[in-house]
């Protein structure tokens, strides 16, 4: 959920299952990617759900971490109301807070409504994936949720590079103040070299480790993400929000390929 430091660095129509089943594998993959893009774009003000996972070293070595990723990513084909999900390794930890927490993997998903998020959390397939793969292999998890307060959508497609930032606000600063400043800063930065952002106040504090605000900035590629650090407009925009922040956790990840829906059984 986040990209306050990422976007503003604070330091130097889908195919039917039957049609997909009849297409060659390459065409099916392309159709799956288009389906994800369409769903991601359709939710203009999504509910964002972020989970940072620090897996046990032995889980990474044994392949259990990869199995965890596959089990969670597969939820996209079985959980209603889940408009987008990505699960995969963290690309880079970009702040001291991120390095101290040490997440190795991230889950980023989106929903049209809060009830859709609640239904996902209670869905038997999600519960089974968490109990069978996450809990046995995770040393630590951090979770944040927010409703997008940005003015425009931030569609995510396979290959997108994303900067995530989680923020703790300075004493006396309220989340709506930061949201207003971020809206102004985003406009001033010209959407940070093409980045599309989503940000908002965390409404699930129980597992958030004190982080009150989240933001993601979505770029077309890692190269476009890296280019933002040298943008003068971003340097000016960061000054708008920096005085409001006490601490920021920032990391980056790359969105993986879409998971194809299973082909219908032969009759």
TrEMBL record:
<protein>
    <recommendedName>
        <fullName>Stress-response A/B barrel domain-containing protein</fullName>
    </recommendedName>
</protein>
<feature type="domain" description="Stress-response A/B barrel">
    <location>
        <begin position="47"/>
        <end position="146"/>
    </location>
</feature>
<feature type="domain" description="Stress-response A/B barrel">
    <location>
        <begin position="161"/>
        <end position="253"/>
    </location>
</feature>
<dbReference type="Pfam" id="PF07876">
    <property type="entry name" value="Dabb"/>
</dbReference>
<dbReference type="InterPro" id="IPR044662">
    <property type="entry name" value="HS1/DABB1-like"/>
</dbReference>
<comment type="subunit">
    <text>Homodimer.</text>
</comment>
<dbReference type="InterPro" id="IPR013097">
    <property type="entry name" value="Dabb"/>
</dbReference>
<dbReference type="InterPro" id="IPR011008">
    <property type="entry name" value="Dimeric_a/b-barrel"/>
</dbReference>
């Amino acid at each position: 959920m986040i990209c306050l430091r990422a976007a503003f660095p604070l330091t130097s129509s889908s195919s039917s299952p039957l049609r997909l089943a009849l297409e060659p594998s390459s065409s099916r993959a392309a159709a799956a990617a288009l389906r994800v893009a369409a769903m991601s774009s359709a939710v203009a003000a999504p509910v964002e759900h972020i989970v940072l996972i620090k897996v046990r070293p032995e889980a990474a070595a044994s392949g259990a971490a990869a199995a965890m990723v596959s089990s969670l990513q597969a939820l996209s084909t079985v959980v209603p109301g889940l408009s987008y999900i990505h699960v995969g390794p963290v690309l880079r930890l970009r702040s001291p807070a991120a390095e101290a927490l040490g997440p190795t993997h991230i889950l980023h998903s989106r929903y049209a409504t809060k009830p859709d998020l609640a239904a996902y959390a209670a869905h038997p397939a999600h519960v089974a994936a968490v109990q069978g793969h996450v809990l046995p292999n995770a040393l630590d998890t951090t979770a944040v949720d927010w409703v997008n307060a940005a003015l425009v959508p931030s569609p995510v497609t396979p290959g997108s590079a994303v900067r995530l930032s989680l923020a703790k606000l300075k004493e006396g600063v309220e989340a709506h103040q930061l949201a207003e400043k971020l809206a102004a800063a985003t406009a001033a930065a010209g959407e940070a070299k093409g980045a599309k952002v989503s940000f908002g106040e965390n409404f699930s504090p129980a597992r958030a480790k004190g982080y009150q605000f989240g933001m993601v900035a979505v770029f077309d590629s890692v190269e476009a993400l890296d280019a933002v650090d040298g943008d003068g407009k971003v340097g000016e925009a960061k000054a708008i929000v920096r005085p409001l922040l006490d601490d920021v956790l920032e990391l980056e990840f790359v969105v993986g390929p879409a998971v194809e829906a299973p082909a219908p059984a032969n009759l």
